[in-house]
Fold this protein.
Amino acid sequence: MLVMVGLWLLTTPVLAQETATSSATGSAEVVTEQKIPEIKTDLTQPTVEVKNKLEAVLFENPVGELSWKNFLRHALDSAVENGVPANTAVLILLFPLVVAIVAAARHLIGIRGAGILTPSLLAVSFLATGIWAGVALFGVILLVSTLARTLLKQMRLQYLPRLALLLWMVSGAVFLSLWGASFWEFTRGIMEVGIFPILILMLLAETFIDIQSGRSGSEARAMILQTFVLAMFTSLILGWEVVQKTVLLYPELIYFGVGVFDIFMGKYTGLRLSEYWLFKKATNDDEEE
């Protein structure tokens, strides 16, 4: 009897230890089974995730011997190896493509935008902020700029002080937007936006105010809307992974191809696509009469 009691006392700590170990192992398995949230990669920021992803494309596709067909790729590889962020090189080489798309949309199609630089900067801002966060901030800035313009018009201030006061109001509105976004889970993406895309959006408020000042209300709204749509379209192209890989692997094709396209586009002196549609509609109306 004493022997049995002694054996029971010796085996009880072992069983307890095995139970604790199995429970700890089970809890560890539950923890490891939880999905780690995916980190959003921002092409405009030289983070480790973005650099590793883009640099892996270069390292997995080594370039051959130096020739006239791949000299720009050699320069790109050398720059990345010497510390230039791969995402910075991609954006620099893709920016002429964005500007060419904006120019083609205006010169060939007939879309009325606020110049060439404004839609291009908006596209880079949307790429950095994300489409929905960028649209939300763009809407807030545009709404506050319009209301501030109406209010400041009654005060009859000089141009530069009026512009400074306008940006003061826009800054306050953006801060309140970030503060309000902290209370809802679905708007937390706005809180993660960097300062430079926000500054670009805020500084573009002056452009939109000038558009509203020199044109009628309907004409200004149409131009701002077309600028916005054009910026969203080019932002999607910038964020397309296939385009990013193409400019990394074949930078000569993208860079010099865009230059040749700009030359041929500049030689075109015919009607725009929207003008064809407008004149065709007018001709059909005359024939019906």
In short: The chain has one domain: 48-284.
